[in-house]
Design a protein that fits this description.
The complex is a heterodimer. Chain A folds into two domains: 1-58, no CATH class; 73-201, no CATH class. Chain A is 70% helix and 0% strand. Chain A is built from eight helices and no strands. Chain A has helices at 4-32, 39-72, 75-82, 90-99, 108-117, 122-135, 137-147, 149-173. The longest helix of chain A is centred in the first third of the chain and has 34 residues, at 39-72. Mean pLDDT of chain A is 85; it is low at 189-202. Chain B is an all-alpha fold. In chain B, helix 1 (2-18) runs antiparallel to helix 2 and helix 4 packs parallel to helix 6 (103-115). The longest helix of chain B has 35 residues, at 20-54. The model of chain B has no long low-confidence stretch (mean pLDDT 89). Classes of the chains: A mainly alpha, B mainly alpha. Chains A and B meet through helix 1, helix 2, helix 5, helix 6 and helix 7 of A and helix 1, helix 2, helix 5, helix 6 and helix 7 of B.
């Protein structure tokens, strides 16, 4: 008995399940076309459609910006403002960077990896993720409209120290030499060495 | 959304004016990252749309209304699993409040909704690895409880 075939199957399953789910939703939606009373299929299709529109409208420019960031922003700059020795001074920068963005949390992952690669301290990467998840300005305007200033302000002010504490906890709980796998993957913009981009010799 | 495209366009033009080949490698890098994540992203979005369809706002109103600890923990659970876009979540939260949902329940729902993403875990793990992704979501869940408790303390 060796674990090879099992591992191979798991790998194949890991690659095919997204397509399987996608086909499922598409099939449900297609079935609802001639069957008008099949609400589930129609709604699932519409939901997927709106997610795809959101993805197509946010992700391409976001990834282009990440690409430009990788090429143009010197590692020194990020290290100085958000590196391991930046301390609490980095917090306002992370908040500024995260609040002006829009979109679902998965948009922030590639940006976070880009920051990490440029020497941003892990805790600051996680502060960025936290702030991005809960304090984007476009979303806050929505929150104020529906739940009022008091709710929104209280939630935001309480959230900031919580995010900082969580990020510090993350940094402590992860191994000291932890590196996100995406840093090492060339297809994710990594260069195989995972440390710095080639243009950083200057 | 439009401002994001405009900013990206301006950044690209400035970059092009400064250095053509650098810009080219930046665009290739960005597109490669985008294309690499598309399959997984499509799968996650398909899963999210199925769950979002199965769980109707009316069901959530039933689960999250009322007082006590049960709606609070349901709010955390639903918020963690679901990935509800803001334009649905906030109107829903407003309805919940009208129906008598308490501040901590609303805060727990909104905060966990935004910070914890069980359905997007595969995506997060692709970038950060399973260990860091699970840890971040677990801590974010604890953070949601803290934020909700703080909200209850401040707003009553």
């Amino acid at each position: 008995m060796n674990g090879r075939p099992v591992r191979k199957m798991r790998k194949a399953a890991g690659k095919t399940w997204p397509w399987f789910l996608l086909v499922c939703v598409a099939a449900l939606w297609a079935y609802s076309l001639p069957h008008a009373d099949f609400d589930f299929g129609r709604k699932a299709g519409e939901n997927l459609g709106s997610f795809l529109v959101e993805m197509a409208s946010v992700l391409p420019p976001m990834f282009l910006l990440v690409g430009l960031f990788e090429i143009w922003i010197p590692r020194k700059v990020i290290e100085r403002y958000a590196g391991l020795r930046s301390g609490m001074r980095a917090v306002p920068w992370m908040i500024l960077l995260a609040t002006v963005q829009a979109g679902p949390l998965y948009v922030a992952f590639p940006v976070a990896i880009g920051l990490w690669r440029k020497g941003c301290a892990p805790r600051n990467v996680f502060i960025y993720l936290g702030v991005f998840s809960a304090m984007k300005i476009p979303m806050l305007t929505f929150e104020v409209a529906f739940l009022g200033w008091a709710f929104s302000l209280a939630r935001t002010l309480i959230s900031i120290p919580v995010f900082v504490a969580l990020a510090i906890a993350m940094e402590r709980l992860l191994p000291r030499d932890f590196r996100p796998p995406a840093l090492e993957e060339p297809s994710y913009g990594g260069d195989g060495r995972g440390s710095s981009s080639p243009e950083e010799k200057d | 959304m439009i401002s994001l495209w405009i900013i990206t366009g301006i950044a690209l033009l400035v970059s092009l004016a400064a250095d053509r080949s650098k810009t080219q490698s930046a665009v290739i890098k960005g597109l490669k990252m985008f294309v690499g994540v598309i399959p997984l992203l499509l799968g996650v979005l398909a899963a999210v749309s199925l769950v979002l369809t199965a769980v109707t706002p009316r069901m959530l109103e039933g689960i999250l209304s009322g007082t006590g600890l049960l709606p609070f923990f349901s709010a955390l659970g639903v918020g963690s699993i679901a990935l509800i876009p803001g334009f649905i979540a906030y109107p829903l939260a407003a309805v919940l409040r009208q129906n008598g949902a308490s501040v901590p329940v609303l805060a727990a729902f909104i905060t966990s909704l935004m910070m914890v993403g069980v359905l997007t875990l595969p995506l997060e793990a692709r970038y950060f690895g399973w260990r860091a992704a699970l840890l971040r979501n677990l801590l974010a869940l604890c953070g949601s409880v803290v934020v909700a408790a703080g909200m209850a303390w401040v707003l009553g």
